[in-house]
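Hey,

Quick one before I head out. I ran the complex with calcium ion overnight. Inputs first:
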Amino acid sequence: MSEDRVVFHVDFDYFFAQCEEIRTPDLKSKPVCVCVFSDRGGDSGAIATANYIARKFGVKSGMPISFAKKRLEERKDSIFLPVDFDYYLEISEKAMDIIKESADIFEYVGKDEAYLDVTNRVEGNFDKASHLAQQIKNSIRDKVKLSCSIGVSTNKLIAKIASDFRKPDGLTVVSPEKVEEFLEQLKIRVIPGIGKKTEERFTQMNLETINELKKLDVFTLIKEFGRKHGTYIFNASRGLDNEPVKEREASIQYSKLSTLKKDSNDYDFLAENLKELCIELHEVVQKNNRMFKSIGIQFILSDLTNKTKSRMLKNPTSSLEELQKNAAQLLKEALEDQKNTVRRLGVKVSELSEIQGQSNITSYF
Ligand code: DGT
Ligand code: CA
Ligand code: CA
C-alpha cells in the first residue's frame, strides 16, 4: 500500500530568451540576453535572462546590462533584446494549456513554472510518471517548440529541486526510495528559500552539502534561523514537505477597451481617456477583491493593427493612483515613434491575487 503522491514541477528553460529564439530561430547559435532597459537610456538596466550560450560567459539574471556586454566582448554576434512580456505570456499560455491536460491538479506558479499532481493518473507508479513527463516534454516541444525541465517526485519540494537538477531539457525522476540518496549529494543552496545569507552562515559552520546539514539537530537550526525557517530547513533537508498541489489557473486578466471619439495620437487627449478607463477597470478589480502586479495598455490603430505595452510592478497593489500613473507612463512610451493615430484604447491588469481578510466586506455607503 502506498500513500505516496506523484508530483511534477515543470520549469521552462531560459524562458524569455528561449521565446526570442522561437520567434527568431537564427538566434539559437548566438549569445542572447533579454534586457530590462531602464528609462535612463543607453545601457542602463538589468539582464532579465540569457540563453545558455551567454551564460557560459558568466551572464546572469539581474546583472547590469553593461557587465553582460563586457563579459560578451569577444562574441561580436551577441544579441541584446528588450523584454516583450506580452509575447512571452502568449507562449506561456500555449504551453500551460498543454501541460494542464495531463494533471489531476494543476497549480500555476508563474509564466514559466507549474506544479502538477498526477497521482491518480499514473496510479502512484513512478515508471508511468516518468513516461507521462516525457510525453509532456515532447508535446510542448512539438507544438510550441519550447523546451522545459521536469522534476518528478513525491512532493513539491523535491520535484522543484529535481527540475533544476539537470537543465536545460532535463527530466529527473526521484522515486520515494531514492529521495535520501538524491538529496544528500546536493549543495545546501539548492533548497528553495535558502538565500545568500543562510548559505553564508552554513559556510561559516563548514557545511556545504545537504548530507552535512543533516548533522544539525532541529534545536540548533531553530536557534540559528528562528522557529519557522529552522524547522523548514530541518524538514527540507530530509525531503519532507506536505504542501498540497493547489488548483490555480494562470492569472485571469481584467481589461477595458473603448473606441475614442476621434482618432488621435495626442498625448493629452489619450491620457484623459485612459484615466477614465482606469477608473472603470479599477471598479471591476475592486468588486472582485483583487490586487494586480502587471499593468498594460493597448492601442488599436487607425490601420487596425494592434500595439500593446505592459509592465510588472515590484509588488501587487490595488491602488487606482498607481494604476493611472503606470498607465500614463506606458502611454507616453507607446506614443514614441508612433506615426499612426489611435482608434481604440485599452488598459488591462493581470498577475492578480486575492486581497486577504476582507473578502466580503463591501462598502455600502
Ligand atoms: P532557467 O534556469 O533555464 O530556468 O532560466 P530562466 O531564465 O527560465 O530562469 P527562471 O526560471 O529563474 O526565471 C524565469 C524568467 O523570469 C526568466 O526567463 C526571466 C525572469 N527573471 C528571472 N530572474 C530575473 C531577474 O533577476 N530580473 C528580471 N527582470 N527578470 C528575471
Ligand atoms: Ca525557467
Ligand atoms: Ca522558474
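The domain at 253-354 is CATH 3.30.1490.100 (Dna Ligase; domain 1).

Talk tomorrow,
K.
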